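Exercise 7. Given the components listed, write out the predicted structure of the assembled complex. Treat all entries as one system.
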Amino acid sequence: DSGVTQTPKHLITATGQRVTLRCSPRSGDLSVYWYQQSLDQGLQFLIQYYNGEERAKGNILERFSAQQFPDLHSELNLSSLELGDSALYFCASSLVASGQETQYFGPGTRLLVL
Amino acid sequence: ILNVEQSPQSLHVQEGDSTNFTCSFPSSNFYALHWYRWETAKSPEALFVMTLNGDEKKKGRISATLNTKEGYSYLYIKGSQPEDSATYLCAFRNAGNMLTFGGGTRLMVKP
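Answer.
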């Protein structure tokens, strides 16, 4: 158990809908990362937050947005969902945001868009 | 798009064999290289974070080396055990804070 929690574990929804995925980092970690693992692609970095501020942006679609709250938990919002958004979404956390620190991954949220 | 390649894509070895695989990454703008171990139905687990050219890190039977000038890192497993079966991922972080993962090497160790 990494100490990172993600909810929900599974989510089934329809095209066009909007969902919110939630992540709580390890106690004391200030930085949160979001990743997408889809069937046809490897692990893709989406976005990173550090202490409430966006720190780095990867391959995140405009239909997706994220934020990190004062209590350091983070939410990833996915809207106008398409079939291709079906994937495993991981959150990871680290103590700081230097890029040279260990990241601890949560168990993931599996999203299925029908 | 940053090119991070891992080879081989998959590897079958016998218990007790030693093995190694490669991660190739851009040699410019290097900041850090991460190695992860990812077992099926679990989440990636950090193995090493490597930052300096010539770095060598070790964790039990697993070790890694880093060459930032030529853009590669090797992961070695000595005396493979069935519990080492997993996908091993590398991730390259550049100075612009972009993190790019390789496709992984899937290792299967037969008892």
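Discussion: The longest strand of chain B covers residues 30-38. The two ends of chain B are 40 Å apart (CA to CA).
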